[in-house]
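Researcher: Quick test of sequence recovery. Tokens follow.
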């Protein structure tokens, strides 16, 4: 196996574009890759292209009827079909929508193929992570579910167990739904609680379907949770479950909308806390599945100050060369942002936050909403996976 990881990217992956007023602006991908290039991260990675997922491939996770309707709307972007979630405020129809969506799906499949075949030890597709798309509907800015398709490809090509960890501020509902009854896939989602954020699912009691009990794990967090609380929850739930599951490969979704500056969510993480989560998942992949790790992007709507820095850190960690958080951002990159909005981009790759947390083993506080949420998840999921839920 080569020791050089890869990023799946070409400029066509920025053509997933719902329009100028939409929060999911494709410039976030462009600025991420520009920052990574100028810092030198991309030099540490093999940059590989992708081909669009075919209709037959997409039909592994989506209904044929849905794919056909996406094609028709893509060819006639003045039409809408709210019955499949397209033509709504969240998911406007746009020209060449099918082609752009299928390319992102194909890019995540290519990342999975590279890692599974040994062509790369780790791979990342920052344009991916469209985790809300359902078998027959678009949802939450997501048309085709690229991460679910990548997982399906892995299962169809010899993987016996796949662990999926989703750290987006929103519940990874589409991926959970697609593998609800499949005990070969462990889905873990850490997200803002459904009482305060779309899609309104992801309660700790959602634990998997018949024959796959315990294969879905949900860690809903109180609004306002910051780095220390988020990392406390992560380490109290994720490592033990992934170790017990013993996956062949780890697939992760890294929506960075958990940041305190994100306009759509109510979590309060810093870039430093998000970077800590990436390092923890890298280490977990190294421990449980020989380092086999496929990472994707996801949400993130502070598109100039947050997303590029967070995902540049992700790219560097996938490359095997984590950046010092105090690294200066390149002057030319800051100037580009200033030209776009009238004020320069952030000076450093850090928000200046010290990252630490109190380990779960140090004690449970029943007066804490966060601790009650952690304990509810452990009580719901741990016994189903043969683990003791008590601290």
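Model:
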């Amino acid at each position: 196996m080569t020791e050089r990881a890869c990023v799946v990217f070409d400029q066509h992956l920025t053509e997933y574009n719902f329009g100028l007023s939409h929060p999911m602006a494709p410039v976030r991908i462009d600025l991420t890759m520009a920052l990574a290039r100028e810092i030198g991260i991309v030099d540490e990675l093999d940059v590989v292209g992708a081909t669009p997922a075919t209709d037959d491939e997409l039909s592994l996770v989506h209904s044929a009827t849905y794919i056909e309707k996406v094609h028709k709307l893509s060819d006639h972007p003045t039409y809408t079909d709210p019955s499949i979630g397209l033509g709504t405020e969240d998911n406007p129809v746009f020209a060449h929508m099918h082609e752009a969506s299928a390319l992102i799906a194909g890019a995540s499949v290519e990342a999975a193929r590279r890692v599974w075949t040994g062509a790369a030890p780790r791979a990342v597709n920052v344009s991916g992570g469209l985790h809300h798309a359902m078998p027959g509907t678009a949802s939450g800015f997501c048309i085709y579910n690229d991460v679910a398709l990548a997982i399906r490809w892995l299962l169809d090509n010899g993987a016996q167990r796949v662990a999926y960890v989703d750290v987006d501020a929103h519940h990874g509902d589409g991926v959970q739904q697609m593998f609800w009854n499949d005990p070969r896939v462990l889905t873990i989602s850490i997200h803002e609680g459904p009482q305060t954020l779309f899609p309104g699912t992801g309660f700790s009691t959602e634990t998997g379907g018949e024959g796959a009990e315990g294969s879905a794990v949900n860690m809903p967090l109180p609004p306002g949770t910051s780095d220390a609380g988020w990392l406390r929850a992560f380490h109290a739930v994720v490592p033990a479950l992934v170790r017990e599951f013993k996956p062949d490969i780890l697939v992760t979704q890294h929506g960075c909308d958990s940041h305190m500056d994100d306009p759509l969510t109510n979590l309060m993480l810093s870039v430093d806390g998000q970077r800590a989560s990436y390092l923890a998942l890298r280490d977990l992949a190294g421990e449980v599945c020989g380092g086999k790790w496929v990472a994707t992007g996801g949400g993130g709507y502070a598109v100039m100050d947050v997303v590029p820095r967070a995902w540049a850190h992700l790219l560097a960690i996938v490359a095997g060369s984590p950046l010092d958080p105090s690294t200066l951002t390149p002057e030319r990159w800051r100037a580009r942002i200033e030209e776009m909005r009238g004020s320069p981009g952030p000076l450093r790759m850090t928000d200046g936050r010290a990252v630490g947390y109190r380990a779960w083993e140090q004690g449970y506080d029943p007066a804490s909403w966060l601790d009650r949420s952690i304990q509810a998840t452990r009580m719901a999921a741990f016994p189903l996976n043969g683990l003791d839920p008590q601290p």
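The chain has one domain: 6-51+98-385.
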